[in-house]
Automatic annotation (TrEMBL):
InterPro entries xrefs: Capsule_synth_CapA (IPR019079), CW_Biosynth-Accessory (IPR052169), Metallo-depent_PP-like (IPR029052)
Record-linked Gene3D superfamilies: 3.60.21.10
Family in the record: Belongs to the CapA family.
Listed name of the protein: Poly-gamma-glutamic synthesis PgsA protein
Keyword RNA-binding: no
Capsule synthesis protein CapA domain sequence ranges: 80-318
Biased composition (Polar residues): 58-68
Keywords: Membrane, Transmembrane, Transmembrane helix
Organism: Plantactinospora endophytica
Sequence segments annotated as region (Disordered): 51-78
Transmembrane segments: 21-46
Length: 399
């Protein structure tokens, strides 16, 4: 279902969003309006390694009730969202998981549960198209693909929206990219990441717009911040909440730190993560979900909005992604926001890729421990506070 009519959000809350009017976007705008997304209304803050079951949505003040507040005003509507980093389920034809991939996400399925479940799909779901980005004698080029039927595994795990804005989206050319979209749609899954694509889903009565960015021509540009801001400003006229999925930053086990400035990798401009993320919030985004470096990075609050600079490797079936040390650590980011974009709670649930590359719950909570230290070192004033169980809190005085 397609909807090109501007949406007028309820009181778009802060001075940064003043004057939001519909912008003229010259390129074709693709808007995917999903049906109501089923899921738990919110998530418990976990004190152990087992994710919580369904419960009532917490209010911004911590109440689990939707009744009137002590002032007599109704509690604000709250929805929960979860997100992951890079997902590669295998590499056809010879490096696919056992049992046809069935049960690939079983260990983390409960952790993913939220009103809107998102992931970064780091491979096409396609048969061989005859088009390959890697030359026959290439030694430093990596390309991935999984059978189109593997979209069913994403559906079974609870995913509802997948990002294609990354360096592997076009591994098998335009046909592979479009085949991926068809495979996702067959199983009722939304996708985002094409140029000027804003995917709008109805989540428990709250409209959420999601746009994907990377440094590649098949996605919204991470490099052209002026153009990116126009996409987000447009998205803000169409939904209550705006989420950015972004593939940014250098790659490798030594790339956990976030510093100001442009990051390069293999001669490619991978963007300025800090400048981009903060600019998107200035333009109207309510949550930034980063991935790309293959390692965890810090969480920062900027103007009350959370920036996750990288969620690491979530899945690398068939050994497609290294699970050596920090490269094997990932996480499920869980965030609850009011319909006005205000923070209502969050948690970082640690995972790791086992020997088969499957995402697995991590009782040692290594990802959360690393992120806790990175928040302190990289953003001493604006970094998120993480409790022992991964519960996320804003700093006392975020800028």
């Amino acid at each position: 279902m397609y909807d090109t009519e501007p949406h007028t959000p309820k009181s778009r809350r802060s001075p940064r969003s003043a004057g939001r009017t519909a912008l003229v976007v010259t390129a074709v705008l693709v808007v995917l309006l999903g049906t109501g997304v089923a899921g738990v209304a919110a998530f418990n803050m976990l004190g152990d390694d087992e994710p919580a079951g369904p419960q009532a949505a917490p209010s911004a003040t911590g109440s689990a009730s939707a009744d009137a507040s002590p002032t007599g005003e109704p509690e604000p509507k709250v929805i929960s969202m979860s997100a992951t980093g890079d997902i590669v389920m295998g590499n056809a034809p010879g490096r696919l998981p056992s049992n046809g991939g069935k049960g690939f996400f079983d260990s983390v399925e409960k952790a993913l549960a939220a009103d809107l479940v998102m992931g970064n799909l780091e491979e096409p779901l396609t048969d061989d198209t005859g088009t390959s980005k890697c030359g026959a004698n290439s030694t430093r080029c990596h390309q991935f693909r999984a059978p189109p039927s593997y979209a069913a595994h994403l559906k079974d795990a609870g995913f509802e929206l997948l990002n294609q804005a990354n360096n592997h989206g076009y591994d098998y050319g335009k046909a592979g990219y479009e085949n991926t979209q068809e495979a996702l749609e067959k199983y009722g899954l939304e996708h985002t990441g094409a140029p000027n694509q804003i995917t709008v889903v109805d989540v428990e009565g709250v409209k959420v717009a999601v746009a994907g960015f990377s440094s590649y021509v098949w996605s919204n540009s991470l490099i052209n911040i002026s153009s990116a801001k126009k996409v987000i400003q447009k998205a803000a006229t169409m939904a209550d909440l705006v989420v950015v999925q972004v593939h940014m930053g250098g790659e490798g086990s030594d790339k956990t730190r976030v510093r100001p400035g442009t990051e390069m990798f293999l001669g490619e401009n991978r963007g300025d993560p800090v400048k981009f993320s903060r600019s998107m919030i200035d333009a109207g985004a309510d949550l930034i979900v980063g991935h790309g470096p293959h390692v965890m990075r810090a969480l920062e609050f900027y103007k009350g909005r959370l920036i996750a600079y990288s969620l690491g490797n979530f899945a690398g079936g068939g050994g497609t992604l290294s699970n050596n040390g920090r490269l094997g650590w990932g996480a499920v980011l869980k965030v609850s926001l009011t319909a006005e974009g205000e923070w209502a709670g969050g948690q970082l649930i640690s995972t790791y890729m086992n020997g088969a590359g499957k995402p697995t719950m991590d009782s040692q909570r290594r990802a959360a421990g690393l992120v806790r230290d990175l928040c302190k070192s990289d953003f001493p004033k604006t970094g998120a506070k993480l409790a022992a169980d991964g519960k996320i809190s804003p700093p006392t005085a975020a800028s």
